[in-house]
Write the structure tokens for this entry.
Amino acid sequence: MDTTTSTAVSSIERFMASELAGDIEFLTARTRALGSARANKALENLGLKVRSYSVLSLACSGLAPTQRELAEFLSLDPSQIVPLVDQLEERGMVERQADPQDRRSKVITSTTAGRQLYKKARAATTAGEAITMANLNPDEQKTLRNLLSRIAFSD
Amino acid sequence: MDTTTSTAVSSIERFMASELAGDIEFLTARTRALGSARANKALENLGLKVRSYSVLSLACSGLAPTQRELAEFLSLDPSQIVPLVDQLEERGMVERQADPQDRRSKVITSTTAGRQLYKKARAATTAGEAITMANLNPDEQKTLRNLLSRIAFSD
DNA sequence: CTTAATCATTGACTTTATCAATCATGTAAG
DNA sequence: CTTACATGATTGATAAAGTCAATGATTAAG
């Protein structure tokens, strides 16, 4: 007798037996919803969201992404990148640099302030991720990354 | 020498070395984007999307979900469930039934037509999922489901 | 050269998400 | 009982995301 630990969990357990709960699409959607809610909260103080954090991260990577590449890697439409870069640029965190190879493209690079912000943001998301993954041991976490990567980059 | 197989892939590889590419949040977001695009396409002919499919699936599960439970399980706001059920109900696929235990709640059940539609839809999404997971062997697929479940239901 | 393709950008438009308010019902306490 | 408070579905307002076509600047190809 006892199915009522917390209202939130009680009914969830019932549906874990459903066919839907075995769908990878569903599981990734739910995992992502949980993770990005947590990440957004962790980034709030820094004036960032998951999206702007992602752009900043790639800008700080030294890989010199163009906006088109950002769109592709982040699964976004190129038109969605524009306001993301706009905001970061206005804050002085990144810069649009004309690509000398192809003047249509704009390479996004980070400023010193951008790299400082990223360092803090990275710490925040890492901490959030640790909470999200608390149920998995380090080996399992590594495995999960590996498996997801092979799906996410299978195109 | 050859890095130019397809424009889409060429730059992606470069960014797989980035810190961001190791973030679980990022990997689930990308995996989900890929998967739900495929699933939506697979469901298009049936007049369904991932969301309505999920509701239909749970309605067909025999688990008698209430709308609140659907919202919780699908990580949606209760107000988002309303139009989803509306549409399926208008098509005669599901029914809102007053819960005799609690007349505030409405239990969503499937009709015969709903179960027939679900059968087709299930086949479509399963096929799509097989494509998504093609790079993983059966054991790996099972492992992935297990690991994701433990994160997705860790609340 | 001229034609076609690509990149960033804009703008229109649709779909999702978020949140407060409401009505009906249920629960708890005096 | 009845008063006070909590909950489930619904509505409506608003913000945020996603989708798509069109444009100007450039580059690539014939």
